[in-house]
Structures are given as C-alpha cells and as structure tokens.
C-alpha cells in the first residue's frame, strides 16, 4: 500500500510499505551521476551501528544490488539541515562526496521531503554543512563544497613536509609527480601526458595505498586540455576505479587553478561525463552537475538479516 509518512519531522509523499511473509522489506532508491551510482536508504532500517559487511554486500554487483556507495538519510539535523551519512562500497564511511550530495538533494525533492530550490545538507560524519541549489534553467544541481587545502596534516600523509606539491613519489620503479589536496576528503593528483582507464586501474591502487598515505587516498590522473577544460581518470580509495567523482573533479580543478593552469571556471571531463567547478582566490569551490533517479527497489527480507540483527 502507499501512504504518507513522517520521519524525524520530515514528511514524504512517495513511500510504499511492502510486506512479504509478514516482514517489511527494506526499500532503496538508486540514483546515478555520470555513472557514479549510489543506493539511498532511510535511517529507520538501521540501529545506531551500520555494519560495513552489509554495505559491502549490498554494493556488490554480483551478490548484491550493486553500487559505488550507499547514502543513508534523512535525519533532521540542526538549523533545519537534512542529515546524511555516506558509505563507500568497501563499507568505510566517507567524509564527503560531491556526486553523492547532489544525488541526495535530488532524492529529497523527488520523494517530497523538500520543496525548496535551495537546501542545507549536514554531513553527519564530519559535522560539515553544505548548501545545495537547483538550477532550473540548466537542469543541474550546484553544491557549495567549501574550502580546500594542501596541508599534509589534513591529508594524513606520512611526511615531514608541510605540503605535498609536485612531490616526487617512487612506486614500483616509476616516479610520479603528485600534488595532495584535501577538499573535505584526501586526494592525490598526478599530471600525465596521456590518460587511460588501465593507467588508473593499475597505478591508482598502488599510489593510493602506499606508505605515504597510511589512511589511503583517492587518486586522479589528469591532463589539462586548455584554460577551461581538464580531463581525468579516477581511482577511489573506497570504491576502486570509477567513471566519475565529484570530489575528484574538484580536487583536480583546485590543483590546476592553484598552479595557474586553468581559469576560475573549469569543466572537468570524466569517462562518465562532465561537471563544472567554480573556484575563487580564497580557496573555496562549488560543483555543478546532473543527478538522475534510476530505480526504486526492495531488498529481500533475509538479505543481510544476520548482519543487521
């Protein structure tokens, strides 16, 4: 049956209660942004602890539903913000996801939790608040992702240097010139002359898990096309090779802008599509791109039941 539902002071008009053999099935929405896909689940399905093994199984593309990550929300956060938690496909909790934030904002409007054209989202893992705007004329969503920095401490890098700028990193007999940047989560940008998925799949995990980054890092291989365009391939520390990543796009744009290689408005081209990143001199940035609902589904009542018990 279909019913209105109120949860933590938030009311949805798109909610379907499904009972199979007397057990309520866990519902999910699937959304994608340029091939970067997330499952969105509501908090009511979980206790305070969300088992990483359940997230991994759910994201598995052969034994589960399949996704690059899971978003859980909304919680009603302070100051009227909509709270969410973001998890990588490996079960680890994510500080921030540019694509994930746009998808969650789209979800809030799609199901009727929100009707505003501007929203405030609260990343419960870090406590950060971000502003989101719906650009009706462009059918896109803009997320103000806040500030970025190059501090090695923010990157949790194992080095005595204050920053990792044009840092020579030797891996497997090759030397890569890298720059580390934090945009709410850690990234390592590697400039190259030519790009391929194989490059990211082969060297991304080796760089991202090397001793310089004991907590691991996201890795982008990038090249500048012109003052307004860059192209990248991505390896994410929690999901592996991905077709698109909003925070990765922001990281590359930030490094390119800080190095004087691009203008303040830059289009980042990824295998899954493109986004726009707007930067300014005070080290803040905004990300604009699409978000699309793919499906509404149900997880079998016995799927992961032992992990959630």
Automatic annotation (TrEMBL):
Question: Which Gene Ontology terms describe the biological processes this protein takes part in?
Answer: lysine biosynthetic process via diaminopimelate
GO terms under cellular component? cytosol
Q: Does the keyword Transport apply?
A: no
Question: Which chemical reaction does it catalyze?
Answer: (2S,6S)-2,6-diaminopimelate = meso-2,6-diaminopimelate
**Signal peptide feature range:** none
Q: Which InterPro entries match?
A: DAP_epimerase_DapF (IPR001653)
The EC number(s) attached to this protein equal 5.1.1.7
Specify which residues bind substrate according to the UniProt entry for this protein: 36, 88, 98-99, 185, 218, 236-237, 246-247
Biochemical pathway: Amino-acid biosynthesis; L-lysine biosynthesis via DAP pathway; DL-2,6-diaminopimelate from LL-2,6-diaminopimelate: step 1/1
Tell whether Amino-acid biosynthesis is among the UniProt keywords: yes
Per UniProt, the enzyme's principal EC class comes to isomerase
Question: What HAMAP family is this protein classified in?
Answer: DAP_epimerase
Give the protein's recorded name: Diaminopimelate epimerase
Species annotation: Thiomonas bhubaneswarensis
The gene name on file is: dapF
């Amino acid at each position: 049956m279909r019913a209105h539902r109120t949860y933590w002071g938030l009311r949805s008009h798109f909610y379907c209660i499904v009972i199979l053999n007397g057990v309520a099935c866990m519902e999910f929405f699937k959304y994608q942004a340029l091939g970067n896909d997330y499952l969105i689940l509501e908090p009511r399905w979980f206790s305070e602890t969300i088992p990483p093994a359940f997230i991994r199984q759910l994201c598995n593309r052969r034994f589960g539903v399949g996704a690059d990550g899971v978003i859980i929300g909304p919680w009603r956060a302070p100051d009227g913000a909509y709270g969410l938690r973001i998890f990588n496909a490996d079960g680890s909790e994510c500080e921030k996801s540019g694509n994930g934030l746009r998808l969650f904002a789209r979800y809030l409007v799609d199901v009727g939790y929100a009707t505003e054209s501007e929203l405030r989202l609260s990343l419960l893992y870090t406590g950060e608040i971000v502003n989101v705007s719906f650009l009706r004329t462009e059918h896109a969503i803009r997320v103000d992702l806040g500030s970025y920095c190059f501090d090695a401490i923010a990157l949790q890098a194992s080095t005595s240097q204050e920053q990792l700028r044009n840092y020579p990193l030797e891996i497997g007999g090759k030397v890569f010139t890298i720059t580390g940047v934090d945009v709410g989560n850690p990234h390592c940008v590697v400039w190259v002359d030519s790009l391929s998925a194989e490059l990211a799949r082969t060297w991304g995990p080796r760089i991202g898990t090397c001793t310089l980054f004991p907590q691991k890092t996201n890795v982008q291989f990038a090249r500048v096309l012109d003052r307004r365009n860059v192209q990248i391939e991505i390896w994410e520390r929690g999901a592996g090779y991905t077709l698109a990543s909003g925070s990765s796009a922001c990281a590359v744009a930030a490094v390119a802008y800080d190095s004087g290689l691009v203008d303040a408005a830059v289009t980042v081209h990824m295998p899954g599509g493109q986004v726009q990143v707007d930067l300014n001199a005070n080290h803040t940035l905004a990300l604009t791109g699409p978000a699309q609902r793919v499906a509404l589904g149900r997880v079998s009542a016995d799927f992961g039941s032992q992990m959630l018990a």
